[in-house]
Design a protein that fits this description.
This protein is an alpha+beta fold. It is built from 12 helices and 11 strands. 57% of the residues lie in helices and 20% in strands. The strands form 4 sheets. Strands 6, 9, 10 and 11 form a 4-stranded antiparallel beta sheet that branches. The protein has a 3-stranded antiparallel beta sheet with strand order 3-2-5. It has 3 domains: 3-88, no CATH class; 95-210, Band 7 domain (Tetrahydropterin Synthase, Chain A), CATH 3.30.479; 215-298.
């Protein structure tokens, strides 16, 4: 029933009730004071049905204890008690639930009965879950479940245990933590809908998922060892990624130089072979001239780098044994000393 229909029905019922009361007072002879008191009481009783629904709230009207209608924000009216009554529910306010811990006076107290749970690989972890929720359907919230908020707390614990029990401890504590959180939220909402609580889970945060305190230090040592292992693997991969391209580049450079040297040697060898064939052809045509030319070319290459000694043509063979050629060829000997010795030999 909407607000207009409810308002018209309430007005007609109120009008008929007032007419019946007036008829009753007309048929009975009472003193004026009693009539006035009765009239005031009647007005107060009728006025008790006036109520206000604020912003972000929703009113639920009960008639003889059963759900009758819902009203939105504004000034509203229902028939007085015991005919009708009302509940004003805050549907905009965000509520919270804590699973595995309780916040008291700025401090956190761990609830082991709620936090300890078993993972899929048979390890024990301590989980703490924080849930924010709102009332999405006031009529369902008020009439379908006896204690919807307690149901939410229990359902959140059940959902978290179920999700953690399907995953390993490493997945739950590291890479899969966000997935565990989202799966817990989805399963929690399904349970809330199945139990008809009228609640909507707006946020689910997995605050803590750690080993129990008794083995926490030892477990963290193992985790740190795995982290060191992964770090060393990444460093080795980085070193390989740095060295391998450089080595490939150096190898390619060596191959390129070898190919260049190969081409150079082949071209030179082909040129020398062609030159030899040309010389052979010239030699076959004129052997004497070719020998003289080759001899002169050889001398042209050798003599510029050789020490030369000139002797007169009339010198006898006795000169050669006394000619100090080795001393003349010594690089440290002064030119004047060499010339003096040559004069002595000639004389």
């Amino acid at each position: 029933m909407d607000n207009s229909e409810f308002g018209s029905g309430a007005s007609s019922a109120l009008g008929s009730l007032i007419e019946d009361m007036q008829k009753m007072f007309k048929t009975v002879s009472r003193p004026p004071v009693l009539l006035a008191i009765g009239g005031i009481g009647l007005v107060l009783w009728l006025a008790s049905g006036i109520y206000m629904v604020g912003p972000g709230e929703q009113g639920v009207v009960r008639q003889f204890g059963k759900m009758h209608s819902q009203t939105g924000p504004g000034l509203r009216y229902h028939l007085p008690t015991p005919i009708q009554s009302r509940d004003v529910v805050n549907v905009a306010g965000v509520r919270r639930a804590e699973i595995g811990f309780r916040s008291e006076g700025g401090q956190t107290r761990v609830i082991d009965e709620e936090s300890l749970m078993l993972t899929g690989d048979e390890n024990i972890v301590a989980g703490q879950l924080f849930v924010q929720y709102v009332i999405k359907d006031p009529s369902v919230f008020l009439f379908r479940a006896r204690d919807p908020e307690q149901i939410l707390t229990t359902a959140a614990e059940v959902a978290l245990r179920n999700v953690v029990g399907r995953n390993t401890i490493d997945f739950t504590m590291t890479d899969g933590r966000f997935q565990v959180q989202e799966q817990t939220k989805e399963q929690l909402q399904r349970l809330l809908d199945d139990y008809q609580t009228g609640l909507l889970a707006t946020e689910v945060r997995l605050l803590v998922v750690d080993p129990p305190l008794d083995v926490k230090d030892a477990f963290h040592d193992v985790v740190r060892a795995w982290e060191d292992r992964e770090r060393l693997i990444q460093e080795a991969r980085g070193f390989a990624e740095d060295v391998l391209p450089r080595s490939r580049g150096e190898a390619a450079e060596v191959v390129r130089k070898a190919e260049g040297y190969k081409e150079q040697r082949m071209i030179r060898s082909q040129g020398e072979a062609k030159r030899f064939l040309d010389v052979r052809e010239s030699y076959e045509k004129s052997p004497t001239v070719t020998r003289e030319r080759l001899y002169l070319e050889m001398m042209e290459r050798i003599l510029p780098h050789a020490e030369k000694v000139i002797l007169p043509s009339q010198s006898t063979g006795s000169v050669l044994p006394w000619l100090p050629l080795k001393k003349m060829q010594a690089p440290h000997e002064a030119p004047a000393t060499t010339m003096q010795k040559l004069k002595e030999v000639k004389s």
